[in-house]
Design goal:
53 residues, mainly alpha, 3 helices
């Protein structure tokens, strides 16, 4: 099967990646990483004490 931009499941962002500047690729990767990054919860004293028990 030959893939093109209209193939279901094709990644439209990276399909033309050979024509993208490295700076743009790095920025897209950084944005994706920031969007999927989880933050640690802030625990109050009560939860911290219960956590250590």
């Amino acid at each position: 099967m030959r893939y093109n931009k209209l193939t279901p499941g094709a990644n439209l962002i990276w399909k033309s990646s050979k024509f993208m500047l490295h700076e743009h690729v790095d920025k897209i990767k950084d944005l994706h990483k920031a969007a999927t990054q989880k933050t640690k919860p802030i625990l109050d004293d009560f939860r911290l004490r219960n956590f250590h028990l």
